[in-house]
Write a structure and sequence with these properties.
Length: 646
């Protein structure tokens, strides 16, 4: 742990070292740009501004007498509901676009149009096909894969009422599926719900804030379909993750190697980069390097970490810091969460910045269009640019913070169940349920979301994780939330004795020993990238089905302590729609609408069983999540900390 060396920007000492270097060299970073924006617009922060037509922008003063409505007559609650819905829609579009890309890659692979790809996990293909009602024929894998791909693509279109979106309907309990249908929040189709939200939030359409929020819930569940689909298809194409040992933080960069950072969210390109980097070792050595060192940034980093053990360099908020080391020869980008500012930093530091997707171009970067049909050929061209950049960098000083932590990652649901099966082969979930009943595991908390420049980087994650672990809450994490925790050692088994309560500690040691490990599982289980947040629902659904209850009865909660992206908003929405108390650690732009705020934090519980907890203080947030866990334990007739079974 390196907490003592933190700065105002971040708890991560490697980031702090690079912030200082950037200041010395006059390179503006995300923290400088944030300071330049202060004070930020108070109307916008509360959601009380609207520019959805050309009469505006309109704004409503939450404290003054006038105006109380926009030019068209939209009230404060209508404004904030429309704004929230549009954020959910954008998040759903991003995650489902990711999924669609994977589906088309699968189709090309099995048709022989993309020879560098294949079905790597037939067991996952079988489980997905059977869940969808598609007969599995091991003699004709290509046909099964094509039928799965077609079923996936059909989820984007408007569905008939009797044929709901499969990647929602088959991923939740029967009770939840019936509830969603009965209450009008089962999505009709992924693209349909995104389009519907954009239609109803146009000027002159839906002006009922509650009706708008109901549409937002449907769109949030469309996002869940995209996340779940993206996870399934990635596993089929690239393999279902199993535990791997690696490292994280800027110390994984190597001064004497060609450093290639893969950045973004989609593994279609990064999988090939990892393969080609090994094949081009001799070219790198001919240029004077020891080899090609691939590192990850953001969720693309999570993808290659959990399948190949590729180390994670850094994550969303601190992405510029990797370049400021002067050691990154190329950043290879797909899409999502990539700062346009990287072009300026890359120019200063001599890094090759390479965009590859039509949906994500940056002026100043090299654009090399990626086509799955020529994947390896294009990947070789990309790595070649990195080798050329190394030639220019060779012999020049770099500043790599010598800070990195051990990471055990790759806990897919399949991997978790397999680990539990070593305790009970016939009923793998029973050991987990037994420990929850006994109170050794008080509950389960999912950490997800991003970092936000408004918060000292990682502070909320680390503060909450420490408190919840001491209270014997099992933590799982995805996306850049997982990144925050891994950089501070929370995915190193050696941290268990320091951070976990006695009950949880005993459980992690028992599972580790049953699986032949020298020690315990890590304090926090890494489940993947941000789309892989859906794995948490798969696990919760399995537990709920095993117990004969619905998800909203389980002692399971979610938290995005430093949420930033619209994708985090859409994930939070589907978590609430599926019944989870869901914490957000930054102010959501809805508090200007009192009715909307009340619905999201209270009234929605009557509809779905889930609700939002907006709490900026991480200690108080942890307390509120513990309270939610205990309420659900009581509902199941289980004992609570310091209490008795009721």
């Amino acid at each position: 742990m390196f907490m003592a060396k933190s700065c105002k920007a971040s708890l991560d000492p490697a980031v702090c070292e690079m912030v200082e270097k950037a200041e010395q060299e006059g390179v503006r970073t995300v923290w400088d740009r944030y300071q330049a924006m202060l004070p930020q617009c108070g109307f916008g922060e509360t959601g009380l501004c609207c520019r959805h037509c050309l009469m505006g922008p309109c704004r409503i003063d939450p404290f003054g007498e006038e105006p109380k409505v926009g030019i068209c007559g939209a009230t404060a609650d209508v404004m904030v509901a429309r704004g929230l819905d549009r954020a959910i829609s954008a998040g759903a579009a991003a995650h489902s676009g990711h999924a669609r890309h994977l589906v088309h890659t699968l189709k090309k692979a099995v048709r022989g149009e993309a020879p560098d790809y294949a079905v790597k996990d037939q067991a996952k293909l079988r489980s997905v096909a059977e869940r969808l009602g598609i007969p599995f024929d091991e003699e004709n894998i290509a046909e099964v894969a094509l039928r799965v791909a077609e079923a996936a693509l059909s989820d984007f279109n408007e569905k008939e009422s009797e044929a709901p979106v499969a990647w929602v309907a088959t991923r939740v309990t029967e009770k939840r599926r019936n509830l969603l249908s009965e209450r009008g929040i089962m999505p009709k189709g992924i693209d349909y719900e995104i389009s519907d939200v954009m239609h109803r939030t146009h000027m002159g359409c839906d002006a009922d804030p509650v009706n708008l929020l109901q549409a937002g819930l449907r769109c949030g569940l469309a996002d869940f379909a995209g996340c779940s689909m993206g996870t399934d298809i990635s596993d089929i194409l690239f393999g279902t993750p199993q535990p791997v040992v690696s490292e994280a933080n800027l110390g994984v960069l190597k001064a004497d190697a060609v450093n290639v950072a893969v950045h973004g969210h989609n593994p279609v390109l990064s999988e090939i980069i990892v393969e080609v980097a090994q094949e081009m070792k001799s070219e790198a050595q001919a240029a004077g390097a020891k080899g090609v060192n691939v590192v990850g940034i953001c969720c693309t980093g999570n993808e290659v970490l959990m399948r190949h053990g590729i180390p994670s360099c850094t994550h969303s908020l601190s992405q510029e810091m990797a370049l400021i080391t002067g050691a990154v020869d190329a950043v290879v980008m797909d899409y999502q969460c990539i700062y346009p500012s990287l072009a300026t930093v890359a120019e200063c530091m001599g890094t090759k910045l390479i965009t590859t997707m039509e949906t994500m171009k940056i002026p100043g970067a090299i654009h090399i269009p990626f086509k799955e049909e020529r994947a390896k050929e294009i990947a070789r061209e990309i790595v070649g640019h990195a080798i050329e950049a190394f030639k220019r960098r060779k012999g020049m000083p770099v500043n790599i913070p010598q800070i990195k932590t051990k990471v055990v990652a790759g806990f897919s649901v399949e991997a978790i169940v397999n680990a539990l099966s070593k305790l009970n082969a016939e009923d793998p979930l029973k050991p987990l349920i037994d420990q929850i009943v006994a109170g050794n595991i008080r509950g389960v908390a999912l950490f997800c979301g991003c970092n936000n420049v408004k918060v000292q980087q990682d502070r909320n994650f680390i503060t909450m994780a420490r408190r919840l672990l001491k209270e014997n809450v099992l933590l799982i994490a995805s996306g850049c939330g997982a990144g925050a925790l891994m950089r501070h050692g929370f995915m190193d088994p050696a941290m268990v004795d320091e951070v976990c309560g006695e009950g949880l500690k005993a459980v992690l040691y028992a599972i580790g020993q049953a699986n032949g490990l020298d020690g315990p599982l890590p304090p926090v289980l890494h489940i993947g990238s941000c789309v892989d947040t859906s794995r948490a629902v798969v696990l919760a659904t399995a537990l709920a089905n095993r117990l004969g209850v619905d998800i909203d009865q389980l002692p399971v909660v979610a938290s995005a302590p430093e949420a930033m992206a619209e994708k985090a908003v859409s994930i939070g929405t589907w978590a609430v729609a599926l019944g989870l108390p869901t914490h957000v650690g930054v102010m959501m732009p809805v508090v200007g609408g009192p009715l909307v705020t009340q619905v999201l934090t209270d009234k929605v519980r009557d509809l779905t069983g889930g609700y939002f907890i907006v709490e900026l203080d991480p200690e108080l947030a942890a307390q509120k999540l513990l309270k939610a866990i205990d309420e659900r334990r009581v509902g199941l007739g289980l004992s609570v900390a310091g209490g008795v079974r009721r």
